Amino acid sequence: MLILRATATALIFIVTVPQLVGAEAGLFPVLISVLAIFVALGLFTTTASGLVAMGTLASFFSFHNAPPIAVTITTVLCISLSMMGAGAYSFDALLFGQRRVTLPNR
Hints:
By secondary structure, the chain is mostly helical. It has one domain. It contains five helices and no strands. It has helices spanning 2-21, 27-41, 45-63, 68-84, 91-96.
């Protein structure tokens, strides 16, 4: 999960850095970058990665300067992180404890 979070964060920065240094820089790429740092640290991962997935798609359709394959992979990684959670090596695990799946006895 740590490697998945690191890969997703690197791809998020690949997608958003051209928007930060371009002429159309604004609050939206900065917000996506802050959420990428949350994903990297594993802090509120399910919410942050879901917002990043939606924000990456929205920025792709509004700015048009990100590579489509990077946007697709970033969105898929963020959706998978949103479904699975942050993992054992994250601030979510420190704050809320690790998740344990218990199956009921039949």
